[in-house]
Write a structure and sequence with these properties.
Farnesyl Diphosphate Synthase; two-stranded antiparallel sheet; 74% helix
Length: 292
């Protein structure tokens, strides 16, 4: 796990640097409350792993400093995490959820107005990190369109079939996972086929992640999960549990099918770093087997 922990550590350090540079202090405090309260950092870690898998040099030869592609990959990774957290702030307002990662959600801590400002601030800081590369901007913009359309579908026209749910999961969760991997490949200056294959891998992982999230909402303990459970029923929100009526074990197997499809997409990549590939494979398994 040291391999992954080293990447999470450098992501955490860069997140702190970005947040510390925010003005005014009140906004810095709000962003710190949202971003630095913890989290699995799955998406930014995926960005660094995708960069390495695509042949990018994230680390120098002595592994003590960033390599030629490292700063770009790291900034893209942090940008993805900021976008993700911006979306969580809005999700908590919509869901009226007062808890996030075991702490007060942004709106519960600061009020609705400051929480919305914090979400905007996170997006602004993220796009500043993407701004040097038009391909990065295009990828992230596409993901945000998908995310926005997914949220609108969830609120207005709830899915009534498994196929409709899967499209919603692709938009709400899969799209940002895809972007995380695409950004890593872009930082490595990979070809279009590699960017697309890594993107498909990550999108499938994201869908599996969302399915597992829905299952955990229905069966997990709130204290263990770090956020309220039963929210899908409380908020009359679509989930694969409610849409299909299947039991958790069956749905977990459905998530595993997406994980296996992700690995098939990964097989299309001429992976340059075998260790990065191993952790990408592990991630596809983790999102299905996780308990929180």
């Amino acid at each position: 796990m040291e391999y992954v922990e080293a990447r999470r550590d450098v992501i955490e350090e860069r997140l702190r640097e970005v947040v510390a540079a925010v003005e005014p202090t009140e906004l810095e405090d709000e962003l710190a409350h949202v971003v630095l309260a913890g989290g699995k950092r799955v998406r930014p870690t995926l960005t660094l792993l995708a960069c390495e898998a695509a042949g990018g040099s994230v680390w120098s030869s002595d592994s003590e400093s960033l390599g030629p592609n490292g700063q770009t990959a790291l900034d893209f990774a942090v940008g993805v995490e900021l976008v993700h957290n911006a979306s969580l702030v809005v999700d908590d307002i919509i869901d009226q959820s007062a808890l996030r990662r075991g702490s007060e959600s942004a709106w519960a801590a600061y009020g609705h107005g400051p929480a919305i400002v914090a979400s905007d601030g996170l997006l602004g800081e993220a796009f500043a990190l993407f701004s040097a590369d038009s391909r990065a901007l295009e990828s992230v913009s596409r993901a945000l369109v998908e995310l926005g359309e997914g949220e609108a579908v969830e609120l207005v026209d709830q899915p009534s079939s498994e196929s409709e749910y899967m499209e919603l999961a692709r938009r709400k969760t899969g799209a940002l996972f895809r972007t995380a991997a695409e950004l890593g490949a872009i930082a490595a200056d990979a070809d279009a086929a590699t960017i697309d294959a890594l993107g498909e891998y990550a999108e499938r992982v994201g869908i599996a992640f969302q399915i597992r999230d829905d299952v955990l909402d229905s069966v997990a303990d709130a204290e263990d999960l770090g956020k309220p459970t039963g929210q899908d029923d409380t908020m009359d929100r679509p989930s694969i549990v409610r849409v299909t009526g299947e039991d958790p074990e069956t749905l977990t197997e459905r998530a595993r099918m997406e994980s296996e499809a992700a690995l098939a997409a990964l097989d299309r990549v001429a992976v340059e770093d075998s260790e990065a590939r191993q952790y990408l494979e592990d991630l596809a398994t983790f999102v299905v087997d996780r308990d929180r």
